[in-house]
Specification:
The protein has 176 residues and is of the alpha/beta class. The chain has a single domain, classed as 3-Layer(aba) Sandwich (Rossmann fold). A seven-stranded mixed beta sheet has the order 2-3-4-5-1-6-7, sandwiched between helices. Helix 2 links the parallel strand 4 and strand 5. Helix 1 crosses helix 6. It is globular and about 40 Å long. The protein starts with a strand and ends with a helix.
Length: 176
């Protein structure tokens, strides 16, 4: 059975950083940027990471995708057999996660990262983020809706991501 790990959280909760750490653990990731669903594939692991991870970009992962990517991503995931990880706002919504949960021979794991307000503000300032309060409130509401979704509740793991120790623990969970 393959495992799909979806990583979500409010902006600056550390989603992209966590996936970058995961990618750095193993050599052999091959980018497929011009694919209809840009991704990285590791033939040694037989695993996929959805998204675009350019070290120079402020926003990476699925945040680089079009807002209309979900149906294409779902079809791509249906065709793949390996384990898969994704993070970011574009695909992290109840309807997409429920569709993944219904796939045969698939175990869905949802990791929702959190951090205290001071940590979130510091990270946003450090990276030069200028997301509006309205946008941030919308993302918070979206995450709360997923956390309270009864259909997804068995798949959800809530995790603090405020320190290096937290990130290491979350990374160990991802690879477990």
């Amino acid at each position: 059975m393959r495992v799909i790990t979806a990583i979500g959280g409010v902006p600056s909760s550390g989603k992209t950083s966590l996936v970058r750490q995961y990618l750095a653990m193993t050599d052999g990731w091959k980018p497929y940027i011009n694919h209809s669903v840009p991704h990285l594939y590791n033939p040694f692991l037989g695993s996929y990471v959805l998204g675009i991870y350019d070290k120079k970009e402020l926003f990476s992962g699925t945040d680089k995708f079009s807002f209309s990517i979900a149906p294409y991503a779902l079809e791509f995931i249906k065709r793949t057999k390996g384990n898969l990880i994704f993070e970011g706002d574009r695909l992290f919504n109840s309807s997409f996660l429920e569709a993944l949960q219904s796939l045969p021979n698939t175990s869905l794991r949802i990791l929702i990262l959190s951090a205290d307000e001071e940590t979130l503000r510091h990270r946003a300032t450090t990276r030069g983020s200028d997301q509006s309060p309205t946008f941030l409130l919308g993302r918070k509401t979206k995450i709360e809706n997923i956390k309270s979704n009864k259909t997804l509740s068995d798949c959800v793991r809530l995790a603090k991501n405020e320190s290096r120790s937290d990130a290491d623990k979350n990374l160990r969970w991802i690879v477990s």
